[in-house]
Structure formats: C-alpha cells, structure tokens
Task: structure prediction
Amino acid sequence: MNEKIIDGKKVSLESKELLKKKVAKLKEKLKLVVVSVGDNPASKVYVKQKEKMALEVGYDFWNLHFDTITNKELVKEIEKLNQDTKVTGIIVQLPLPDNLDKNLILNTVSPLKDVDGLTNINLLKLVKNEDSLLPCTPHGVMKLLEYYKVDLIGKRIVIVGRSELVGLSLFHLLLHKNATVTLCHSKTKDLKSYTSEADILIVAVGKKDLITKDMVKKDSIIIDVGINRVDGKLYGDVASDAIESASLMTPVPGGVGPMTVISLMENVYKAWELQNDQKD
Ligand code: NAD
Result:
C-alpha cells in the first residue's frame, strides 16, 4: 500500500475488533434501531450496511420502516422508542420525504439515544466542547487524524463544505484541538487561495474533482469526505493525482467511509454508557 495513503479500512477494522470485545463482555444486548420512511434506493443500501455492521459487532438491529407516515405519527413512533428500555440507539435515516419536518423529527430522538449526534442538544454540546454523542463522519475523521498522529495544534486547516453533518461539526471539533480553522463553502470566492495555504485540507462537498492538484499545498494532509458515484464507480471530491503533492491522503472508497460506520457503532456503546450514568 502507498505509504501516503490514510487507510480508513484498516483503522476501522481495528476499531471494530476492539469494540466487539467490549460488547461481548456486556451482560445485556444493545439494540440499534434505524427509522426509515419511503423508498430512497441509496437509503436502503445504507440501512443494509448499518445492519450488517451492527450484527457483526454483536448488537440487535431493527429497521422500523414506513412507506408513508405523517409528522404526528412518526413523532409518536420515535417517542415509543425513546421509552423502550431495550432500545439503546436510534437513527432517523435521511433524507426524509418532503412531507416530513426533518428538524422536528430529528429532535424528537432522545439526546441519550441520538447515535447520529444530530439533535440540537448534542450539536450544542459539541460546540461547547462538552461530552456528547458526536456526528459519525466528523468523529471518524478525528479518529483517523488521531490514529495517524497528525499534530493539530496551531495548524492551518481548511474545510470545504459547511453542513452540520460534516463541515460545520468538524470546524468546532478541530477548533477545540487548537487548530486555526477556516470554513469554505459554495459562496467562497477564490477557493484556491484558501486550499493552497492549508496544512490540512478537508473536503466535504459532493463534487468530483472540485479540488485539483494545483489547489493543494505541498506536503499537506488531505481528507476527502466526498462520495460521488459516476458510471457505477466511487470518487471523492479531490482529484486522485493530488496525492503527488500531499504527504498523506484518504482514498475514496476506503478512507472516511468505513470510519463513519464504525463511529456509529461506537456511538451505540457510548449511548449505553451515558444511559447507565444517568441511572446512578
Ligand atoms: P451538503 O450538500 O449538505 O453540503 C455540501 C456543502 O458543500 C455545502 O456546505 C456547500 O456550501 C458546499 N459547496 C457546494 N458547492 C461548493 C463549491 N463549489 N465550493 C465550495 N463549497 C461548495 O453535503 P454533506 O451531507 O455535507 O456531504 C458532502 C459530501 O460528503 C457528499 O459527497 C456526501 O456524499 C459525502 N459524505 C460522505 C460521508 C462518508 O462517510 N464518507 C458521510 C457524509 C457525507
């Protein structure tokens, strides 16, 4: 394997083995529930991936699926899951159909069971650097940086993409690690003037080849979060030859993707710990 490649697959497999051992020691079985609505084909694939990994780790798994449902009915269903002591973690699979109020639905999930880390309460805790369930992709990126012993203090980090799911959350997590972080987005003028100055460049946009080799700093570290499917093949947001300038770079697939799934599984365990802390 190219020594410049950040191997998310390897790191996630190691994390999975550690987690499996911890889960095997528990007296009770933890349970992950994915709530899904409608027939989005990509969502079906993602739910299957989560089920496979949950079972491998040793959790129970349930996909609570509705072809159609109203806001009121879905809120009731999630409240039932919040009350159910056998349910450890709850995910609402996104995107939701247009008739549903995403903000309302996500925030109905108990913050102690919010294993996607997307409730307002958990996002505020993240901003305030309080212990919480973190969104899975940002958590996965932080774990990769830690595994590869990337020094963050005082580093110039540029993130491209400002979604809560990825870029905005990473902005806060990296700031808490004392990096100097710049957040770029679709309205940023002269993107290259930022990216070419970055010691660490993180890209989460969803546009193949948005970042080309000439836009990255020599010997920088590149984390490519983007997933773009073109003619049945997966690509990131960073052109693959950018690795020639970088000192380290994540591939797509096999970089951030596997870290997202394992972070979700780790969050289920953490949710169980948080729920037990509350019982004390
Ligand atoms: P999003 O659509 O919510 O956000 C995209 C962001 O990109 C926005 O903040 C927007 O301002 C910015 N943007 C759009 N065009 C731009 C441009 N030309 N220049 C600079 N910024 C621009 O998407 P998201 O949910 O944050 O996902 C981003 C990408 O990451 C997608 O490809 C998604 O599939 C991928 N993703 C991967 C994982 C994983 O596990 N690897 C997890 C989540 C998302």
In short: The CA atoms of residues 48 and 67 lie 17 Å apart.
